[in-house]
Specification:
By secondary structure, the protein is mostly beta strands. The chain contains 2 helices and 29 strands. 3% of the residues lie in helices and 47% in strands.
Amino acid sequence: MRAVTLATVLVAFGIAGCGAEPSDVAEDSAAAINAKRLRYQQVDITEGPANVDGWFPRGLTADGEVIGQAFDCNEDFSVCRQFVLKRRSNGQFTVLAEDFLVNDVNSRGDSGGCTTDPVNFEGQAGVVSANGRLELIPPLPGEMSSCVSRVSDSGVAFVTSTDPNFVTSVYILDHGRIRPFPVLNVDVGDINDKAEVAGTQFDDPFRAYRFDARTQTTTLLQPVPPSPVSFGFAINRQGEVLGTSFDFDGVIQRIGKWNRRNQFETFLIGGSGNPAFPVIANSVTWNEQGLIVVSATSDENTYLVPSPGVRLNLADLVKNANAPSSLQVIAVNTHADIVGAAESSAFLFIRD
């Protein structure tokens, strides 16, 4: 599951579904009581190995190991080599691959990206496994360079290919089979094992979408009226799409999911139109268990949303430190461990 940043849009933070909105959950409800059992140890993972100039996390395995991108540059930083690093649970680092650029990491710790030349920047698409094995994707005829931008848990990959005239083409590699991606003017937020893609189509009006590469079917996912806009961020194994329904004025935003019937289910409502939670968020992610994590918020807090109407401030759940403000969550795994970055620092939150 991926975190998605709305870098150019201020959005109201929340979720709503078709029908009734989620009411505030009583403090003594079963959902609230179970959610309060979440507790975390915070670990500062900013410092990388001594033999690199820096590193930053790109994903999190189910075992709590952090996969990241490291770089080693010359004195004026004009030429840099890229490395794939794994931070083990004991804090030790392992180099998984050299001269490889990481764009995405799945829950198994496989890194989707491309080989990279520090001088001409051309590379070949591939996936580096959690044990360091590199599997390159065969180039298309006439291809100059290529790269994986998204990879699912089973290795289904979204690939961009560029020819010598810098004309790009995109496709989905579904266990050896190339499937076209004809959807125009979109971003690709996530891909699942069924070769389904989720993201946002930037036509007017903006719409979240789900694309099924095996049936070549595109479904536009509608906002909850009267909100005019919907964004799609991530997709789970069932094909449910994490997203938002909102207006650009930040008055109301509903954060939730479109189910397989394309109905929007509400988890949280925020924005200036909700006095109980007048918060704007710029990043949303989740795990396969449905735990939603929202970050990069206007109040600089990070919130966990384990069930509709229940929101928990991460700062209240950390036992050994003060959770950093303005955290950008990168990934949350099936155990509900969290990895994120705040300014030039990186942090791992290990669930007890």
